[in-house]
Amino acid sequence: MTSYPDEFFRKAQDAVWSMFTDPTSAIPKADALAEEYADRFAGHQVRGTVLFAFGQAEEGLKAFAAGSQRAQADEAAFVFTDRQLKGQETVDQSLQEVGPDIARIDMLYDIIPGGPFKLPQSMTIVRLDDGGLALINLIELNEAVRSALAGLGPVRLLITQTFFHYRYIGGYLEAYPEAKLFGPLAHKTKPEVEGFRYAGYLSDDDPVAPDALEQITFEGHAFNETAFHHPKSGSLVITDLGLNGKDPDSVFYDFYCWLWGGHGRFACPHYHRLMVTDRQAARRSLDKIIAKGFTRLLPNHGHAVAGEGGQIFAEAWAEVFAKM
Ligand SMILES: [Fe+2]
Questions:
Q1: Lowest mean pLDDT among 37-41, 193-197, 227-231
Q2: What mean pLDDT, rounded, does the chain reach?
Q3: What predicted TM-score, i.e. pTM, was given to this entire model?
Q4: How far apart are CA 279 and CA 276, in angstroms?
Q5: Which long-range contacts (CB under 8 A, 24 or more apart) does 93-100 make?
Q6: CA of 249 to the centre of ligand 1 (A)
Q7: How confident is the model at residue 1 (pLDDT cuts 50, 70, 90)?
Q8: Highest mean pLDDT among 36-50, 197-211, 256-270
């Protein structure tokens, strides 16, 4: 991979992050980056991402195309084909058994419909002792997901384990009226989920499925995420506490992981050091999670990691703490 200086990543991440924190500055920052790195591909990809996010679809695609033209041979992995620019990438949505009583289904989330911004997401399905199902991190409930679930058992629990993931809750509440919905405590005051019938909010003191799942809230971190440990399969289920950039399901995701320091591997995107609000509390939570001794890592973004999952998770977080 052609090397880019740290300065490039700092500016690129700043432009992308500004989309959420200071939208007025995001486009000027991305424009400046593309100008500064006019002969390289990635500055244009960042500009395309930002423009597209702000509704300037045509300009955004032009920037992507310009970036692709400037890519050097060893950057070929990130070059967007016409098909990808038109948002035509797909993913296999069949059920994947990953261990005893635990399975996954993948989807590609269209950040901006019709564009190249496809982000992989996975829902984890856990069979409970009574034969019912707990669904962790809900993905779009389309026909493929509905029929995969139909043969598995009654849906008992709907769990959204982190602050930013809530998009598909409504469809599940409608389809599975008997199921109980649990989310992070921070959802209590989140306008986007107002009116949904939460049965409760996640608390380590009152686990939602104590026979099958152990809960560890990641304290001292802005996402208010609860990690789930499934002892039977030695799995840790997380949503945004790390992502897997290995064998990416979309070109944009490959680029996204690279930009945040997780190219081709499991990592905690660099923005996490800005998300830790209480270093000691976060450290304590992390130690509790690692102490579970899991071997399989089931992230929401990217594929499952088997075997060395515990060690890989610990190393990814050690990088975050080292840079704080
Ligand atoms: Fe996410």
A1: 37-41
A2: 93
A3: 0.92
A4: 6
A5: 93/142, 93/144, 93/145, 93/148, 94/144, 94/148, 95/125, 95/148, 95/152, 96/304, 98/233, 98/235, 98/296, 98/298, 98/304, 98/306, 99/230, 99/232, 99/233, 99/234, 99/235, 99/296, 100/232, 100/233
A6: 15
A7: low
A8: 197-211
CA of 239 to the centre of ligand 1 (A): 6
- Cα 82 to middle of ligand 1, angstroms: 26
* Domains and their CATH numbers in the chain: 6-79 (1.25.40.10), 96-323 (3.60.15.10)
What are the φ/ψ torsions at residue 195 (nearest 5 degrees)?
95, -15
Q: Which residues contact 144 (CB under 8 A, 6 or more apart)?
A: 93, 94, 105
**Eight-class DSSP state of 221:** B
β-partners of residue 102 are 99, 126
213: amino acid identity, one letter: L
Centre of ligand 1 to C-alpha 213, Å, is: 21
Contact 201, 187 (CB under 8 A): yes
Element (H, E) at 175: helix 169-175
DSSP string covering 24-56: HHHHHHHHHHHHHTTTSSHHHHHHHHHHHHTT-
- Per DSSP bridges, beta strands 96-99 and 102-110 are antiparallel
Residue 38 CA to ligand 1 center (angstroms) comes to: 30
Q: What contacts 110, CB < 8 A, 6 or more positions away? A: 87, 117, 118
Distance from Cα 300 to the centre of ligand 1, integer Å: 7
In sequence order, what are the residues at sequence separation of 6 or more whose Cβ sits closer than 8 angstroms to the Cβ of residue 34? 43, 44, 46, 47, 63
Quote the ligand 1 centre to 118 CA distance (angstroms).
12
Spatial strand order in the sheet of 296-298: 214-217, 226-230, 235-237, 296-298
> Of 160, 98, 116, nearest to 249 (Cα)?
116
CA of 165 to the centre of ligand 1 (A): 6
Give the residue from 15, 88, 81 showing the smallest Cα distance to 54: 15
